[in-house]
Design brief:
The complex is a heterotrimer of chains A (278), B (309) and C (370).
Chain A: H1 9-35, H2 40-45, H3 58-65, H4 68-100, H5 106-117, H6 121-134, H7 141-145, H8 153-164, H9 167-175, H10 180-191, H11 193-209, H12 212-217, H13 226-232, H14 243-274
Chain B: H1 15-19, H2 30-55, E1 57-60, E2 64-68, H3 72-79, H4 81-111, H5 117-128, H6 134-145, H7 151-158, H8 173-185, H9 187-199, H10 202-210, H11 215-226, H12 228-243, H13 247-253, H14 264-274, H15 278-306
Antiparallel strand pairs in B: 1-2
Helix pairs in contact in B: 2-15, 3-15, 4-8, 4-9, 4-12, 5-9, 6-13, 8-13, 9-12, 12-15, 14-15
Chain C: E1 13-22, E2 25-35, E3 40-44, H1 51-59, E4 66-71, E5 74-75, E6 86-89, H2 101-111, H3 116-129, H4 145-157, E7 163-167, H5 175-192, E8 195-200, H6 203-209, E9 212-217, E10 220-225, H7 227-232, H8 237-242, E11 249-252, E12 254-255, E13 262-266, E14 272-278, E15 287-292, E16 297-312, E17 316-323, E18 328-334, E19 344-349, E20 355-358, E21 363-364
Parallel strand pairs in C: 3-8, 3-9, 6-7, 7-8
Antiparallel strand pairs in C: 1-2, 1-4, 4-5, 9-10, 11-15, 12-13, 13-14, 15-20, 16-17, 16-19, 17-18, 20-21
Helix pairs in contact in C: 2-3, 2-4
The chains are: A mainly alpha (278), B mainly alpha (309), C alpha+beta (370).
């Protein structure tokens, strides 16, 4: 809505309400971050006095000493990178195929892709798990990476993007005696880099944050991803042995993603905006 | 058969644009989509079929396959009070969260749809929480919900209320999860509404201004009807997403107390991966899938009737 | 310069019985046409007449529903676009945005394995002809519209094709640039002596550049001929109305049956107009309209009319006058003359340039001179 000129009092009030809401929104995160710098003993007594000393970095050094966290992060990174790379490859190829080429059976295959969109992860996770058990593939990177590759969002995004490229450019390339494959690699792909960036970041983010499938597939502690590992440490909550330590863990696990968000906000938001609208 | 020639729409209305493709059809072109199709079939279609088959079997990870049992799994499911409870919980959860998502998301989108710095900063704030993983989010909110030590306890303590513990309260456990969920993913509906709002041509607002329309009038008569279709899309989307509730429930309340906050997906998880009764879990998965489809279809057709954009 | 010498070949472009159907839509019906080596043929017609589709079928970007296309005696409609010896300049230039001008021009040559130094030579020659040598290392995004168009032409020239195709290349240029480019294209054609097929809806472009014009309407060829021939002797009413600015005047008439060896017709207001069309040449369907161009309407004495609109163009004045029965006739006056609106005039029609049209749109002309 246009409201550039003079903000009416009604506008100011509403904006004020939104700012208040925003403060409430940040509150949990800010609170956790703040308390992560307080020693555990202090917190056992009370969680008030957020802004007063004492402060400590001990919680964080404790994390750094507990080497498991880094193993988890490494696993998450490998899985996320693998999913990102493979998704980009599969989605770009398929997207181009659907957008710009003709072949027998193109329409039913596209309908199939759309249909896959309607199937939620939870509906097939049990049989998927069984399949991988039969193949004895659990607790491998392959098993962690594979299932999400079937997610059609990437294909649909790339199809839309390739369709938007002027067909004349590819026709000119056809007349320049370029093969289909050459057109794909030398002409179309370089022009789709913005879409690749968006899809890549989105895929990486979702792979990093994935929980359900790694939970059931990576059952050995050395294969835990960050999400699973972090959840496994929360079972001793009742003891509150280290409230500050827990808080630090939350911050530590959330930091990489928030940094990613800071740098790539535009891409992430763009991907989300395009996600469900097919 | 020859028909009278009709003039084409000017320009590109030829094979290429009408079919979306260029050049002659060729089998070789299928190789572009083949890798993805293979993956999709292998990792979605096959499991789906397998899941349906499994739901009719007595398949126990420990005891092995004991043959087909027709509809026994389904009959047992609907006789299981806990399972029925999870259906109720899930439906309740969807009913709690979807309107919240739509209303709050729309409110934020409308108020923050501006070019000024403060709008962008505020949008960032509300979107930021959605990039966190479910484990980070649940960790944060478990800490917030801690009785006596949590942020909630601190705040209510300020106004003299003590002993607040939503996680262990049968009535408040599910709403507590709902609050977490809305906090977590408000960025999604907000972004979708923002995109829709930005599609409205500015000239319409200028015309309304010339017609001396008040702010409220503009909102109700122009803005809202223009994004009618998006509201339906967002509602359907949220329904589908919230039916899939899992991590928040598992990690914050564990499904209790008294099974009052256990969602369907958690039931599937437990029967499939804890109790290892695959056939039974597969049947529950099919029920979930069917419910989701029905709910989405209902909402979609309701939205269709209410107004065509 | 080897680039400019055209390879000797038999025959130019030949279309036989070409048709194109899309679904149930007949876009082109049974079209046959011969374009000779070295011609500058222009496909002219309104939007939707099929001229672009025809061009794209020659290029290989559309399939044929029927018929054959041959180039230099060799059938080409069955081979891939890149192998037909055809180059095309697109309406929006279709340059590769991420490549430099040089790379754009080299792309086609590299795909067929041309050696590096030969590619460099050809690019040099072509860019000199088009005066784009100083732009070779820029990307299309950094060029103006006119420069981009030259690059598009350059990309076509380096391939030394047997046939050049132009798909409305001037429509994206502003008026001044358009007339300049027209001249340059005409010069290019003379210099290279290549066969060129040019598609446009602008009859001025067609008249000024073509050696022959192919006038198309609704998927069919209405007439093929040299520009002046089409102008003076349009074969159908459509061609007569499409060519020439301002458009030809058409007046509803009925034949009078007298006039000796030449047909005479009666206007709506009853006055009789004599023509130089031999009565013997009239056939079948009766005459229904009289056509006469603005420059062949003679103000003086004749059918009465009232001046309605006056357009002063500088070098001439167009006067739109309305007759008693409501028909509008436009005629020419010298630039310094400007009748007042509402003024009464009387208009006569030069018999030797009057055309008669029957109900099917066929034209009947006076005998041609020689």
């Amino acid at each position: 809505m246009q409201d550039d000129s003079r903000p009416a009092t009604g506008d100011r009030l509403i904006l004020g309400a939104v700012v208040l809401l925003a403060v409430l929104w940040i509150a949990p995160i800010a609170w956790v971050v703040g308390l992560s710098f307080k020693p555990n003993e202090v917190l056992m007594r009370s969680t008030g006095g957020l802004i007063f000393p004492p402060f400590t970095l001990k919680n964080y050094t404790d994390i750094l000493n507990s080497s498991a966290v880094f193993g988890w992060m490494l696993n998450s990174a490998i899985v996320a990178a693998g999913q990102m790379a493979l998704t980009l490859v599969l989605a770009s190829l398929a997207g181009y195929g659907f957008a710009r080429t003709n072949f027998p059976g193109k329409a039913p295959l596209f309908v199939l892709t759309l249909g896959v969109l309607a199937v939620p992860e939870q509906a097939i996770i049990v049989p998927l798990h069984t399949m991988f058990s039969w193949l004895d593939l659990h607790n491998t990177y392959a098993a962690l990476i594979a299932p999400r590759l079937a997610f059609p969002f990437g294909v649909l995004l790339m199809t839309q993007y390739f369709r938007a490229i002027s067909p004349e450019i590819e026709e000119a390339a056809l007349l320049d005696n370029a093969s289909r494959l050459k057109i794909f690699f030398r002409i179309v792909l370089p022009l789709s880099i913005p879409a690749q960036a968006t899809l890549g970041i989105y895929t990486f983010l979702h792979a990093w944050n994935d929980y359900f499938w790694p939970l059931v597939s990576a059952t050995r502690p050395e294969m835990y991803t960050l999400t699973v590992g972090l959840a496994s440490m929360q079972t001793n909550f009742a003891q509150t042995e280290g409230l500050g330590f827990l808080m630090a863990q939350a911050v530590f696990a959330g930091l990489p993603v928030l940094v990613l968000y800071l740098f790539f906000q535009r891409h992430i938001v763009a991907a989300v905006a395009g996600a469900p609208t097919r | 058969m020859s028909t009278a020639a009709a003039p084409l729409p000017a320009g590109r209305a030829t094979d290429a644009s009408m079919r979306g493709g260029i050049g002659q059809p060729a089998w070789a072109n299928m190789l572009f989509v083949l890798p993805y199709i293979v993956v999709a079939i292998g990792l979605v279609v096959v499991p789906m079929v397998l899941g349906i088959w499994l739901s009719f079997q007595d398949y126990d990870m420990l005891g092995g396959w004991n043959g087909g049992v027709a509809f026994d799994n389904y009959v047992n499911l609907f006789g299981d009070r806990i399972f029925l409870g999870t259906i109720a919980n899930t439906l309740l959860f969807v009913l709690m969260t979807t309107p919240a998502f739509v209303v709050i998301g729309l409110f934020l989108a409308i108020t923050l749809n501006g070019h000024l710095r403060r709008h962008a900063v505020l949008r960032s704030v509300f979107f930021a929480s959605s990039v966190l993983s479910v484990t980070v989010v649940t960790l944060i909110w478990r800490l917030v919900y801690l009785p006596d030590h949590g942020l909630l306890a601190d705040i209510t303590g300020l106004v003299g209320i003590h002993g607040i513990d939503p996680v262990t309260s049968p009535t408040w456990a599910l709403p507590a999860i709902a609050v977490v969920t809305v906090w977590w993913i408000i960025g999604l509906p907000m972004t979708l509404f923002l995109a829709a709002l930005q599609q409205i041509p500015p000239e319409i607002y200028e015309a309304a201004a010339l017609d001396r329309a008040s702010r409220w009038r503009t909102l109700v008569s122009i803005t809202l009807p223009s994004i009618c279709r998006t509201v339906v899309v967002v509602a359907v989307l949220e329904i589908i997403l919230q039916f899939q509730l899992f991590g928040q429930a598992l990690l914050i309340t564990g499904g209790g107390p008294d099974n009052r906050s256990r969602p369907m997906v958690q039931y599937i998880y437990e029967s499939g991966f804890r109790d290892l009764q695959l056939g039974y879990a597969a049947a529950a998965s099919q029920v979930l899938f069917a419910l989701m489809l029905v709910a989405a279809l209902v909402q979609f057709s309701l939205g269709r009737q209410r107004g065509e954009a | 310069m080897t680039l400019l010498k055209r390879i000797g070949r038999l025959g130019g472009l030949s279309l036989r019985g070409v048709s194109k159907r899309f679904g149930t839509l007949d876009i082109i019906r049974d079209l046959s046409l011969d374009i000779e080596d070295g011609e500058f043929a222009v496909f002219l017609g309104p939007s939707g007449c099929g001229k672009s589709t025809l061009l794209r079928m020659i290029a290989g970007l559309e399939t044929l529903s029927g018929g054959e296309i041959s180039l230099g005696g060799r059938r080409i409609d069955t081979i891939a676009p890149g192998e037909r010896g055809v180059a095309m300049v697109f309406q929006n230039y279709a340059l590769y945005p991420h490549m430099t001008v040089r790379q754009n021009m080299a792309f086609g040559l590299r795909n067929v394995g041309t050696p590096r130094d030969e590619i460099a030579r050809k690019i040099d020659t072509a860019s000199q002809i088009l005066e784009i040598s100083h732009l070779l290392d820029r990307k299309p995004g950094q060029l103006s519209g006119g420069q981009r168009q030259r690059v598009a032409i350059g990309r076509a020239i380096v391939k030394q094709p047997e046939l050049f195709l132009f798909d409305e290349p001037l429509s994206n240029l502003d008026a001044a640039l358009r007339s300049r480019t027209r001249i340059e294209l005409a010069r290019l054609h003379q210099r290279m002596q290549a066969t060129m097929v040019f598609v446009t809806h602008d009859q001025v472009e067609a008249m000024t550049m073509a050696t022959r014009i192919v006038v198309m309407n609704q998927g069919r060829i209405e007439q093929v001929g040299a520009p002046m021939e089409i102008y003076i002797r349009p074969a159908t009413r459509f061609v007569a109305s499409f060519i020439g600015s301002p458009p030809m005047n058409f007046l509803p008439v009925t034949p009078t049956g007298e006039g000796g060896g030449f047909a005479a017709v009666r206007l709506a207001d009853g006055s009789v107009v004599n023509t130089a069309v031999p009565s013997a040449s009239l056939s079948g369907a009766g005459v229904t309209a009289l056509g006469v161009r603005a420059e062949h309407v003679i103000p003086g004495s004749g059918a009465p009319a009232r001046v309605d609109v006056v357009e002063r163009l500088g070098e001439r004045t167009l006067v739109y006058a309305v007759t008693a029965d409501g028909s509008t006739i436009v005629y020419d006056e010298p630039g310094h003359v400007a009748p007042a609106i509402g003024e009464r005039v009387e208009l006569a029609f030069d018999p030797s340039h009057a055309l008669l049209f029957d109900a099917n749109g066929i034209t009947y002309h006076a005998d041609p001179v020689a």
